[in-house]
């Protein structure tokens, strides 16, 4: 059973039509309903619940009661909602479960209303919007047969863990999340709500999907598994530049680049144990009689390299890096959403061996700053993302000043998740999270201090006295998945567009940086000359040689977010100049071509370059969509 619990000012519904051939019989009075000051509980009864409906009812009532007590709700609205699951129970079982939940809640002293089952209904709801106002819960009968491959103890435990949520200010104040004044920090409030509710399902298409399709960057691939995408030339260019940029940053930081397999033996003792400590769902493949899993990070291969290496204390910190194309996680279908959450993704993954906690924390802080620098290069500043830092209560008490320093570095309040006891393999973790236009959050950069896997994999180093010791290991992705960086860039531009501002890619990432538009065929030779000079200077340029009117050509370039539009006519040819429309500030300038080249090169200095991904002449290009 899946439940979405929303603490609401009110919930009201009106029956519109039958959704099932034989829906629940109802009276005229039951066709409408409303409750004020209510805990709205949207429920999908699932096929798995059929094995023990009574147990599922008991567990569901307990969860609802616990949440109602937390939000101090005395009224509960039980609302059938099939959209939370794709594996629904039979209608007769689902109805009985919902009826029993209603009865049990009344016995617990709640005022209860239940919306009728088997109908299409219109509903209105006003969510209260505090951090505990939106929560999700999953209930399953005990004793359900789950295969060894599908069972993930870390995922199960993650749902059971009790988290304590706080906001930490740069001044060092630790404030319970429901007591923090979010005025001026509205994005942080959205992020806190998202994290606490744990509702990852995407109920609408995020704006970046429309943009990625309109710009012919990325598309869904109907011939593959969900969450696997196809990249058109412009999208492949952006993705490739991001891959190169992050890799260069990490290698410059001091990491050694390696390459490791994408599949591993499910029965390998160290790997099997790690699978149950990492909260991700695996893809399983067979080769002969053996089972393998597709990697969901570069940990496995890098750990096995380190195990076989001879490492001295003089080598530490030892940094190893791989850009995984691809990593695989079998995310739930309802959570898949454009570029935000995928089943196959490209993860820049660095692992650092540190001799002790002091060295590990020093590296943690450096990699925190590295992550800020990497995101700045793709056009994302601390105003665009929120910080989550996660640890146990003991770690906080022993390292309070260190955690506060992280908040000072970012210069704004951060979300804290604290546990009484450590379950995961890490003792400290941070993420930079982008909050999109649907108020969903997605982790970008992250670093974790791992205290378990050196011993699990047999990774050791020799200390100053020649003794073998187990190190600590830092897991770092300074950008997060490359696809998710593209998602964040597009979602940010969608926000700017909604504010009436001109969206654009960072100049170094723009698939076409300059478009040359000749006013007539008579000056096509000069347009091609200009394009040739720009291309020689490693600037991505194209020429609009279509028969469209000048204004239409300009509008088309604007729609494609071209940073520089050059219009050339007889005057420009005679004076050997160019007339430039600069998207960044909207200015129109007459320039020497050399000055334009110098300006673009200055703005893209230090970033990687790839040549134009499409033919020079627009008339020679295919249309990939529609």
TrEMBL record:
Cofactor(s) recorded in Swiss-Prot or TrEMBL: Zn(2+)
Family: Belongs to the class-II aminoacyl-tRNA synthetase family. Archaea-specific ThrRS editing domain subfamily.
SUPFAM superfamilies linked to this entry: Class II aaRS ABD-related, Class II aaRS and biotin synthetases
Protein name as annotated: Threonine--tRNA ligase
Domain (Aminoacyl-transfer RNA synthetases class-II family profile) ranges: 210-506
Single GO molecular function: tRNA binding
Cofactor note: Binds 1 zinc ion per subunit.
Location of this chain's protein in the cell: Cytoplasm
Binding site for Zn(2+): 299, 351, 475
UniProt KW keywords: Aminoacyl-tRNA synthetase, ATP-binding, Cytoplasm, Ligase, Metal-binding, Nucleotide-binding, Protein biosynthesis, RNA-binding, tRNA-binding, Zinc
Organism encoding this protein: Thermococcus gorgonarius
GO cellular component terms, semicolon-separated: cytoplasm
Reactions it catalyzes: tRNA(Thr) + L-threonine + ATP = L-threonyl-tRNA(Thr) + AMP + diphosphate + H(+)
Gene3D superfamilies for the chain: Anticodon-binding domain (3.40.50.800), Bira Bifunctional Protein, Domain 2 (3.30.930.10), D-tyrosyl-tRNA(Tyr) deacylase (3.50.80.10)
InterPro entries: aa-tRNA-synt_IIb, aa-tRNA-synth_II, aa-tRNA-synth_II/BPL/LPL, Anticodon-bd, Anticodon-bd_dom_sf, DTD-like_sf, Thr-tRNA-ligase_IIa, Threonyl-tRNA_syn_edit_dom_arc
CDD domains for the chain: ThrRS_anticodon
NCBIfam families in alphabetical order: PRK03991.1, thrS
GO biological process, any: threonyl-tRNA aminoacylation
Subunit annotation: Homodimer.
EC number annotated for this UniProt entry: 6.1.1.3
